[in-house]
Amino acid sequence: MKALVLSAGFGERLKPITEERAKPAVEFLNVPMLAFPYYWLSQLGLTDLTFNTHYLPESIRLAAKHVVAPEVRLHFSHEDQILGSGGGIWNARFNLGGDTFAVANADGVVLSANMNWPKEMLKSHSESKALCTLLLCELEGVGETLPGVWVDQDLNVRGFGLKAPADGLKCLHYASYMLFDGQLIGLLPDGPSNILYDVLVEQIREGKTVKGFT
Question: pTM value?
């Protein structure tokens, strides 16, 4: 499987630590934050892993080369201008083509007692034949003071944000990991975009299946 780890950003809230290293290269529990998405994604049989870069790109390169196993082909997709979550996928598209691929946030530190959730999420994604499956979780205030992902009782995603797009929906928090069908590459606009609001909202309107996984 091919995967992209989105790492563009400035880490403003971690200054002065991030004046020398990009946020994903900052240690948490004695390893760089980007080691957490790599650990979970590695359970999916990674062949290729791409990190996008913008701020202090060499710190990302160095941390990734120390963490990623040598048998995984490592790529870097640099952004002179931050392109957003959708634009980051578009910029790295040549390393992601083909079948299902995964996308994760480089600073998305997920700790779970269920060590098999990545494989279970992939199984659910494959069985549903969804365009996209998002990892979701409960979070206090989501849908009230924090924007979230609105799902029905079958975890079909109906929309994003603070306001429910329909009655009877539940709001959950997006927990930094997504699986995509390869057809998504052809649906991305050129240049900057937000994968949720600029891409998936439109595909849901067009009748494509977008699922949540908890």
Answer: 0.94
